[in-house]
């Protein structure tokens, strides 16, 4: 993160950016993170897909429905968590963002992490897991594990999680995904084991 990234951001949004020529070409808009600016949980996906690009909000397509359902089932509302992506512009054909694109957007993500200051960062899928942990990650095997890693200027707690879309491709992953989300809720005291957020169920 450098001073330029901070200056370009208006609070938690990036009003304009043309660092990645292919993404500028493929996007309709920049998709910033949503949710409270002081959320305890920050979910980080890979990058916007078609629906997200259309609506200007992360995880509003099928993956978003899977995430919303799982959050609800552990007693968390989508509105109580923050959701963002490694890159803020839709890659063409929904390809993975390149290393260069990830690097171009890294400062914005670091500023967001610094300003939200979440208790736990949940990486959704391989790309954000590897991007934030700085190593190769086998999400299927490591989903649900927590690691401390320096991001920006301080150590952060990162929970590795499958991408919600993995459960759509392979139903046997549902339990693994559900367990990681339950762990996320437990780590911030909002899981199904108790807490105020559960009262709405009754
Ligand atoms: N997949 C992601 O990684 N991010 C989104 O915002 C939507 C789908």
Automatic annotation (TrEMBL):
<dbReference type="GO" id="GO:0051539">
    <property type="term" value="F:4 iron, 4 sulfur cluster binding"/>
</dbReference>
<dbReference type="InterPro" id="IPR005273">
    <property type="entry name" value="Ura-DNA_glyco_family4"/>
</dbReference>
<dbReference type="GO" id="GO:0046872">
    <property type="term" value="F:metal ion binding"/>
</dbReference>
<dbReference type="InterPro" id="IPR036895">
    <property type="entry name" value="Uracil-DNA_glycosylase-like_sf"/>
</dbReference>
<protein>
    <recommendedName>
        <fullName>Type-4 uracil-DNA glycosylase</fullName>
        <ecNumber>3.2.2.27</ecNumber>
    </recommendedName>
</protein>
<dbReference type="GO" id="GO:0006281">
    <property type="term" value="P:DNA repair"/>
</dbReference>
<dbReference type="GO" id="GO:0004844">
    <property type="term" value="F:uracil DNA N-glycosylase activity"/>
</dbReference>
<keyword id="KW-0411">Iron-sulfur</keyword>
<keyword id="KW-0479">Metal-binding</keyword>
<keyword id="KW-0227">DNA damage</keyword>
<comment type="similarity">
    <text>Belongs to the uracil-DNA glycosylase (UDG) superfamily. Type 4 (UDGa) family.</text>
</comment>
<keyword id="KW-0378">Hydrolase</keyword>
<dbReference type="InterPro" id="IPR051536">
    <property type="entry name" value="UDG_Type-4/5"/>
</dbReference>
<dbReference type="Pfam" id="PF03167">
    <property type="entry name" value="UDG"/>
</dbReference>
<keyword id="KW-0004">4Fe-4S</keyword>
<feature type="region of interest" description="Disordered">
    <location>
        <begin position="30"/>
        <end position="62"/>
    </location>
</feature>
<feature type="domain" description="Uracil-DNA glycosylase-like">
    <location>
        <begin position="32"/>
        <end position="182"/>
    </location>
</feature>
<dbReference type="InterPro" id="IPR005122">
    <property type="entry name" value="Uracil-DNA_glycosylase-like"/>
</dbReference>
<keyword id="KW-0234">DNA repair</keyword>
<keyword id="KW-0408">Iron</keyword>
């Amino acid at each position: 993160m450098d001073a330029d990234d901070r200056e370009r951001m208006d609070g938690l949004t990036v009003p304009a950016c043309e660092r990645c020529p292919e993404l500028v070409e493929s996007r309709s808009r920049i998709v910033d993170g949503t949710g409270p600016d002081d959320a305890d949980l920050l979910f980080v996906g890979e990058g916007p897909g078609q629906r997200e690009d259309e609506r200007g909000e992360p995880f509003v397509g099928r993956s978003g429905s899977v995430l919303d359902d799982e959050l609800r089932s552990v007693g968390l509302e989508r509105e109580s968590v923050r959701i963002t992506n490694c890159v803020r512009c839709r890659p063409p054909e929904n390809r993975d963002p390149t290393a260069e694109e990830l690097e171009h957007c890294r400062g914005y993500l670091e500023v967001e992490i610094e300003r939200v200051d979440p208790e736990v960062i949940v990486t959704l899928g391989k790309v954000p897991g590897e991007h934030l942990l700085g190593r190769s990650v086998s999400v299927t095997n490591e989903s649900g594990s927590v690691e401390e890693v320096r991001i920006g200027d301080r150590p952060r707690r990162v929970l590795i999680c499958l991408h919600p879309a993995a459960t759509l491709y392979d139903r046997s992953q549902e339990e693994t995904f559900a367990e990681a989300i339950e762990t996320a809720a437990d780590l911030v005291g909002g899981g199904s084991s108790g807490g105020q957020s559960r009262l709405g169920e009754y």
